[in-house]
Write a structure and sequence with these properties.
single chain; 128 residues; mainly beta; seven-stranded mixed beta sheet; four-stranded antiparallel beta sheet; 13 strands; globular
Length: 128
């Protein structure tokens, strides 16, 4: 069974940091791209970052560039999202997702593919 499980969310003050984790199981990890998305209340889900696990290539949405870092531990089948200098606008439910490709960077921004497998999400709350 393909499974993605997020953890690491919580409450943090603006300017603080969190590290989210995504544990993957049930598929060949190195064959997939893993992305982080987030959804704020009343807003559409948006991509945050993506990593291609075979070569470590990374893609970032402009809003998180310079503050967020996505990384993977292929041996542990884990993907992480280190989030620094958090802002109230970063608040939402963060999901990891898996599919064959991240998609594209265009004009310095990340445009994701359609992702087929999703985790259940982890809540990030940023207090101002």
């Amino acid at each position: 069974e393909v499974q993605l499980v997020e953890s690491g969310g919580g409450l943090v003050q603006a300017g603080g940091s969190l590290r989210l984790s995504c544990a993957a199981a049930g598929f060949t990890f190195d064959d997939y791209a893993i992305a982080w998305f987030r959804q704020a209340p009343g807003k559409d889900r948006e991509a945050v970052a993506c990593i291609t696990t075979d070569d470590g290539g990374t893609y970032y949405k402009r809003s998180g560039k310079g503050r967020f870092t996505i990384s993977a531990d292929n041996a542990k089948h884990m993907v992480y999202l280190q989030m620094n200098t958090l802002r109230p606008g970063d608040e939402g439910v963060y999901y990891c997702a898996a599919d064959r490709r991240c998609s594209v960077m265009y004009n310095g921004d990340y445009y994701p593919a359609e992702f087929s497998t999703w985790g259940q999400g982890t809540q990030v709350t940023v207090s101002s």
